[in-house]
Amino acid sequence: MSEKQAEVQTQACPVPPAVDVNPWPLTVATYNIHSAVGTDGRFDPLRIAAVLKEINADVIALQEVPLGDSRRESVAAVLKQATGFHMVEGPTEDRADRRYGNLVLSRYPITCTRTIDLSFGRREPRGALDADLDCHGHPLRIIAVHLGLRPAERRDQIKRLLQEFDTNRMPVILMGDVNEWFVWGRPLRWLVSHFEAVPAFNTFPSRWPIFALDRIWISPRHRLTRIEVHDTPLSKVASDHLPLVAHIDG
Q1: How many domains does the chain contain in total?
Q2: In the predicted model, what is the mean pLDDT of the chain?
Q3: How far apart are CA 102 and CA 118, in angstroms?
Q4: Is residue 158 part of a domain?
Q5: pLDDT category, 94, cuts 50, 70, 90?
Q6: Domain boundaries, position 164
Q7: Which of these, 18, 79, 101, 184, is most buried using a 10 Å CB contact count?
Q8: How much is the pTM?
């Protein structure tokens, strides 16, 4: 099977000059919301919104988000209204009958976005949403990702994703559902070699988590002060994943 090159939609993204207002520390989170269908089988976007309010993060990367189509309301729109945050969508499927994919919500303005197609052969379409934020003049790059289920698929996706990183321009946070079940799998080793090791916590399945599928990395590594799982009665039922939360300092 031939490798498909990453398709990147991009635009000029100037780095804003820093000002005196200090945005640090920041709280960021990643959360696979399972199409807003909870472990009780109920579709409830407002329950996901309530979990986000519990977390009270400044920047949130979401996966498996219904973005609005002919069959179902836009969960993205519900979450944007509930949080009042800036929002950018990164659909991995974009048809009249189905818009679905990644989402970034940010307390701070989103100045530039790029989408990276990480689809692999005939597998389910996958991608990354790459966004630059202006945190009171301090630039921050967020890459929200959802990788595939097969090992060969993830290896291909990580190779292509790592080609897109320029960690010298501004701090970079990579977060999302990497679907890596093997602690010493090659995709995780490649990411650690690029970002340095960070703690891993079990987030799936939400009721009895035994796998660390959801991860957060940052470059430079020293700015990461703490990672934790948001494990509450509400988060255990709202999705089949638990949210993962990280605290970033300047």
Answers
A1: 1
A2: 87
A3: 12
A4: yes
A5: confident
A6: 24-248
A7: 101
A8: 0.88
